[in-house]
Amino acid sequence: MDSDTLCKTPGGGLPRLLEIMRRLRDPNTGCPWDIEQTFETIAPYTIEEAYEVADAIERGDMAELKGELGDLLLQVVYHGEIGAEAGHFDFDAVAEGVAQKMVDRHPHIFGDESRDKSAEQQVADWEAQKARERAAKARGGVLDDVALGLPALLRAVKLQKRAARVGFDWPETTQVLAKMQEEAAELVEAQDHLTADEVTEEMGDLLFVMANLARHMGVDPEAALRAANAKFVRRFGAIEASLAAEGRRPEDSDLAEMDALWDAAKRAEKTS
């Protein structure tokens, strides 16, 4: 099948998508915008698409999820094509690499280890294998390969988990709570007499400890904050709807009234 036929024929699956990307990136006949892209310019789109996948899952929208997963796959195909053009790797090498990683990290499925292990033991074995892989890459420090491009909250948790593996961690949640109270007090003090940069630093310390507290309590702070964001949007939407029923907007109201409407929305959620 020639390139044009493959690109235009539904049902071609992954080979069709790979060929479409090759055509888009063709230096002579491709799309000018696609030709100009690099790893660096595409990376922000990759991150954005991953978040849109998470958003579709959060909303339980399976039709949207299918589309968003396709958009995320396109990002991998994009990076694979750029890598192939530069002679670094291609899509097949990417797929082979992760396939081999899955086999190596699941000896209880693909090897001779017993499958009769708890989920907790399997997680521990997974982390041990990852540690061996990092050692083989000759990474310098414990934290060296925690990706800089991660969202700050997620990276904080990963840094803390990595440090905890070598014993740098509070053994009790109460100690984390005490540290949180200490950092909150420092932030209150900071706002009165410290510079803006120093206040920012204290806020960062408090957020970092909050991430640590979530980790100790077995809570995914990113998921918790997403849920809190969704709740805020939902309840503020109820405020807007209540005011709109009277022909008004939030700017036509005041804090006391909107706070009362917020409480009403909160009660309605609990009784529904």
TrEMBL record:
GO molecular function annotation: ATP diphosphatase activity
Q: What is the lineage of its organism?
A: Bacteria, Pseudomonadati, Pseudomonadota, Alphaproteobacteria, Rhodobacterales
Its domain of life reads Bacteria
NTP pyrophosphohydrolase MazG-like domain boundaries:
37-110
**Keyword Hydrolase belongs to the record:** yes
Which gene name belongs to this protein?
mazG
Give the organism, scientific name: Thalassobacter stenotrophicus
The protein depicted here goes by the name Nucleoside triphosphate pyrophosphohydrolase
Entry's family note: Belongs to the nucleoside triphosphate pyrophosphohydrolase family.
Pfam families hit by this protein: MazG, PRA-PH
